[in-house]
Amino acid sequence: MAALGRNRDGKTLALQWREMMQEDKQQIATAREALGEAYVKISDPWEAAYVRFETPEQEIRKFVRRLEKLGVVRLPREARVVELFCGRGNGLHALERLGFTNLVGVDLSARLIALYEGKARCFVSDCRRLPFPDQSEDILIVQGGLHHLTTLPGDLAQTFAEMHRVLRRDGRAVIVEPWLTPFLRLVHSVSGMSLARKCSAKVDALATMIDHERVTYEQWLNQPEMILNIARAHFSPVQESFAWGKWMFVGRPL
User: Fold this and answer.
1) Cα angle 241, 244, 248; round to 5
2) pLDDT given at position 180
3) What is the model's pLDDT at position 42?
4) Which of 46, 50, 222, 247 is the most buried (most CB within 10 A)?
5) 162 with 127: CB under 8 angstroms?
6) Band of residue 19 on the pLDDT scale cut at 50, 70, 90
7) Strands 80-84 and 121-124, how do they pair?
8) Own/partner pairs for 203-211, CB < 8 Å, 24+ apart?
């Protein structure tokens, strides 16, 4: 990598990076200490439903299969990989299982990052303002974070612009988000039935999560053309599919 240069205060970006990492470690440590029993007792309804929907092991295996399907396994294992909206880090665990060794996680929630116990370095940061130098990352991965953005198109445009900024010119952006396919319409219909919720804990958990994120979730699902236009203004598709309720996209920065 080329020399990183200096910021306006005269600090080298490498020094600034180290200071930011130290601040993030302190935030995460504070969150871990504050969590205490929250590791096993979850009071937030969405989080509680998320845990009921699938176990961490089930989610990790799902992510492994997904990354294999998207061709991430064909990329160099020493590549610098950043998981955005990494949450509690199950996507990072999946990447570890696939043999990737240079991993970074980013999430706005210190509380969620504190739940991750693995080898990746984690930053508490807003994905609209990523804490990385220009063209410094090989692979950026988002699995289900973009549909939580509050304001569209503004937040999405900022996030994609930041992803474009930090990706190397031969890098890859990997995105998996919900998409209103016929299958997802069927899922919505079933999850809206009280009998289905009573008969299936998984259906009830999904319905609960949708209820608690409905504003941003429906905002996302109802604007597919806008989303694709912003994505393709920043990335050239290498692989793309719309099936089983998911938009799966791999692109190169333009």
Assistant:
1) 30
2) 98
3) 55
4) 247
5) yes
6) low
7) unpaired
8) 204/49, 204/52, 205/49, 205/50, 205/52, 205/53, 206/49, 206/53, 208/45, 208/46, 208/48, 208/49, 209/46, 209/49, 209/50, 209/53
What is the Cα Rg of the chain in Å? 19
Q: Which two tokens stand for residue 8?
A: 């306006």
What is the domain partition of the chain in residue ranges? 54-180+222-253
Q: Is the pLDDT of residue 32 over 90?
A: no
HSE-CB of 106 using CA atoms within 13 angstroms: 21
pTM: 0.83
Higher pLDDT, 12 or 171: 171
Q: What is the pLDDT of residues 194-227, one digit of tens each?
A: 999 999 999 999 999 999 999 999 999 999 999 9
Report yes or no: 91 and 99 within 8 Å, Cβ to Cβ.
no
Distances (CA, A) of 86 to 24, 76, 145, 200: 14, 21, 8, 28
The confidence score (pLDDT) of residue 106 equals 97
Q: Tell me if 121 sits within 8 A of 104, measured CB to CB.
A: yes
Q: Is 202 helix (H, G, I), strand (E, B) or coil?
A: helix
Separation of alpha carbons 55 and 36, rounded Å: 20
Q: What average pLDDT does range 77-89 have in this prediction? A: 96
* H helix or E strand, kind and range, residue 234: helix 224-234
d(CA 125, CA 226): 25
Closest-CA residue to 98 (of 84, 117, 77, 80): 77
Written out in words, the top-level CATH class of the domain with range 54-180+222-253 is alpha beta
Q: Tally the residues of the chain.
A: 254
